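Chapter summary example: a protein plus fe (iii) ion.
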Amino acid sequence: MKKIPESEEELKKRLTPEQYEVCFLKGTESPFTGKYLYNKEKGIYECVVCGNELFSSEDKFESGTGWPSFTKAIKEKNVKLRDDFSHGIHRIEVVCGRCNAHLGHVFDDGPKPNGKRYCINSVALNFKRI
Ligand code: FE
């Protein structure tokens, strides 16, 4: 795994502008544009910033929303959840448990049994085939 923390300058050098925008300025990639939206290969989705393992292909599902969607994190502690009151609505933000990079949001309209939908930007992820 990559070391943390890095300076803003180092991060900007290492990440693409889009990665920096999503992970550190809480941006959102346009729906139906992310490279992992339709990825059905078996593997692990890691944090694009620090390499922390975040989601498994086994928990990925087709939500129809335009972003990669997962029913849960690979381990509960590998992500952190935070209240987000931006845009005048209350949402739960999902960040990397190790480096705090913004990943997306989690909603309560996922499939049974746990009913969660982790709505995650492809840009914030790096896929590792297993
Ligand atoms: Fe990270």
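Key point: The mean pLDDT is 96.
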